[in-house]
Amino acid sequence: MTTPEPVTDEELDELDELAQAATPGPWFVRHLDDEHAMNLVAVSTMPDTGLGERWPHFDHRETVAATLVQSPRYVDTADERWDENARFIAAAREAVPRLLAEIRRLRAQPWADVSEGGPRQAN
After folding, report:
1. According to the lineage, what is the superkingdom (predicted)?
2. pLDDT band for position 21 (50/70/90)?
3. How many helices (H) and strands (E) does the chain have?
4. What pLDDT was estimated at residue 18?
5. Against a cut of 0.85, is the pTM above it?
6. How far apart are CA 25 and CA 21, in angstroms?
7. CB-based contacts of 64, cutoff 8 Å, min separation 6
């Protein structure tokens, strides 16, 4: 396995801009269902109620993304990891800004050497 190139400051800035422009979090996984979108797995700004609400009993404006819309087959990954993908997307909303902040915090440490992509040796 090859070692990936270190993330540049410009790439961190781009990711930060993307995160700031996205719908505010937290995000949650919701399981919804209706005659137009059977077995809908969605990423939402509202937590799942466990009721599998059918439209119009959920607000479509709370849906950020969908990882499964099974009937008709609008969104459906071949590996059937729609629940896992939804959990990853929802977790990323909070994780990405935290990871960016941690990278910047670590790079600001006196022992950090970002020009070489790794730590400097202490003298």
Report:
1. Bacteria
2. very high
3. 2, 6
4. 97
5. no
6. 11
7. 23, 27, 42, 43, 44, 45, 89
